[in-house]
Fold this sequence. Notes:
- The complex is a heterodimer.
- By secondary structure, chain A is of the alpha/beta class.
- Helices cover about 35% and strands about 20% of the residues of chain A.
- Chain A has 2 domains: about 5-185, Rossmann fold; about 195-325, Rossmann fold.
- Chain A has helices spanning about 5-20, 45-50, 60-75, 90-100, 100-105, 135-140, 150-165, 215-230, 245-255, 270-275, 275-285, 320-330, and strands at about 5, 25-30, 55, 75-80, 115-120, 145, 170-175, 180-185, 195-200, 205-210, 230-235, 240, 260-265, 290-295.
- A 7-stranded mixed β-sheet of chain A has the order 3-2-4-5-7-6-12, with helices on both faces. A 5-stranded mixed β-sheet of chain A has the order 9-11-10-13-14, with helices on both faces.
- In chain A, strand 6, helix 7 and strand 7 form a beta-alpha-beta unit.
- In chain A, helix 1 runs parallel beside helix 7 (about 150-165), helix 3 (about 60-75) runs parallel beside helix 4 (about 90-100) and helix 9 (about 245-255) crosses helix 11 (about 275-285).
- The relative contact order of chain A is 0.12.
- The radius of gyration of chain B is 22 Å and the shape is globular.
- Chain B folds into 2 domains: about 5-330, Thiamin diphosphate (ThDP)-binding fold, Pyr/PP domains (Rossmann fold), CATH 3.40.50; about 340-374.
- Chain B is α/β, with parallel strands linked by helices.
- The relative contact order of chain B is 0.15.
- The site of magnesium ion (MG) has 6 residues of chain B, from strand 4.
Amino acid sequence: MSRPTTYAQALNTALRDALTEDENVLVLGEDVGQLGGVFRITDGLTRDFGEDRCIDTPLAEAGIAGFAVGLAMQGFRPVIEMQFDAFGYPAFEQVVSHIAKMRNRTRGRLTMPIVIRVPYAGGIGGVEHHCDSSEGYYVHTPGLHVVTPSTPADAYSLLRESIASDDPVVFMEPKSLYWSKAEVELPTTTEPVGRAAVRREGSDVTVVTYGPQVPNALRAAEVAAAEEDWDLEVVDLRSLVPFDDETVMTSVRKTGRAVVLAEAQASPAWAPRSPPASRSAASTPSPRRCCGSAASTSPTRRRSSSTRTCPASTASSTPSRGCSGTTSRT
Amino acid sequence: MSEIDDLLPCREPVRFLSPDGTEAEPTQEMTDRGYAIPPVEDLVRVWRAMVVGRRFDAQATALTKQGRLAVYPSSRGQDACQVAPVLALQEDDWFFPTYRDSMALVTRGIDPVEVLTLLRGDWHCGYDPKATRTAPQCTPLATQAVHAAGAADGLRRRESDAVALCFIGDGATSEGDFHEGLNFAGVFNAPVVYLVQNNKYAISVPLSKQTKAPALAYKGIGYGVRAEQVDGNDPAAVLAVTRKAYEHARSGKGPFLVEAHTYRMEAHTNADDATRYRTPDEVDEWTGQDPLVRLQAYLVAQGAIDDARVEEVRQEAEEFAAALRDRMNADPQVDPADLFAHVYARPTPQLREQAEMVAAEREASRPETEEVAR
Ligand SMILES: Cc1ncc(C[n+]2csc(CCOP(=O)(O)OP(=O)(O)O)c2C)c(N)n1
Ligand SMILES: [Mg+2]
């Protein structure tokens, strides 16, 4: 029976079900045991599965990631937690040089079925190092999948799929959505990783977004409809790698306009370089625009959307009414 | 001995053979710890593998000059460390080597052409890590230290009695991952043996600039990891100490750190010029400590090998090198499609698109390619 489920509960249930179904699944991280993780995503797992399955590790992110590499070599499926986005950086070498590359290095003989869970992005009143949009670092590394659900149903389904995947997955959890709720019956299976979802159908502008900004885009669409008579179509990417070009382009061809809405710093981030931004310019005659944060500020405010900017320096030279209208009113 | 004394290494590196191949006087500490010179037939096996290994190493260096290898980091002088610990492994044990350890991989029985694939530059790992229970040669320094801890923990979880052996250089002990590897191994009581080949240099930088520790083996105690130091140019001592380390790990007592004092006789790689940072006198001094000369002299004196046996093994090593040379002279067959084949279990649409693009371009240019080949 469906009932109100938070995003955090959905993740917890996914981990629980994976631990139950496959004894090779192990959960490792800082404070993931007794405490249940600083965001309580692993709540009760050590109690129910033992400290040999949900493991408090020493405080060392490279160690956690590297240890997972060794476990994966022995056929385990480690799910590792980086406590916060910026604290995943010590593990970067292990993630980029080994987890991402081991499969190719060994012609598929050694696979790295590792899920790296990263609570990311702002909007929860976090201080520096607790609110980075670090997805850009991972999407540029071949060998990694980068998944970021925006709903409780996707949180469950995509995490289960990621754990079962033989590819390493950087699983990015928007902290601001941990307490968001939806009516869901678990277990549930949504569209697979690699398929974007049209969250709202519209005819005027396609808003391409993901993770923490999906609810903002949906709210903006309502405001735009009510106040400016714009009919926005909202596409939730769900995974940045693989990128669902097809769904995005189908939408953009229909509406003739694209706005990329991302929380990450606009200049060096995923958003402005993402395929929809570049492709839509080439394939449609109409305006497109990228909205992101200014490169120098970190989104620490709880109501982060009010600080979103649409910096002129990062937008295309084509003027667009859609962008400022969309972001300033959310 | 107190628990703390037990963790500490001997004050003097364990040594059975003097540089001239005569038996060295064992120290009291060695005797107290029960170290004994290994049986002579075991040392004959080590000697034989060292003769083949050294010839392999020389051949690989020659292959760089012929343009058949992109680069080769020689381990000449470190032959005892390359051979004895690997021969003492059991088949189901795992091995975590670095770029320096090609001789060790050959000793493990891996096809030398597959070993040299990385250094030839046509693929990153030529052998099957699962079938050989040998991780790819690791280049990002010390990162393998944590892999080995994790793999050893994995072996323990599988209730196997196998252990992991991890090689690491002296310079790499300054990296954070060395610390994290030892610490994780200690906390999880993982059956892993770390062998530091202290060859005195990290490219050009001497050990004195890496650490203030009296010896690298003293780094064990900070993690509660049992440690030992050994004369890395004494094959008998390296064999005895690594066997003891495996026994320790295999019996559930946790990780073990061995520091082997040795010397890198060649430059860092064929592309390096070692005269810029060390003197010929220093190198000469270590020439007098050669591990192969030392062991051979001992075995001859023991009557375990004679001239005929020496000649027989020399011949075997020559044949090994000749076969390697011939096989390396053949151009490797590479398929550009491979570039895309192994990146993902489930490739992204974009990668598939790129693969198709390359395939189409190759198809379109096929007649030309054939002409060039002719
Ligand atoms: C993380 C990292 N930094 C730098 C290098 C470049 N590098 C390759 S070998 C080497 C020296 C390593 O010395 P040591 O650990 O003593 O091993 P040895 O080469 O003597 O066997 C350096 C600096 C590297 N491979 N990885
Ligand atoms: Mg060195």
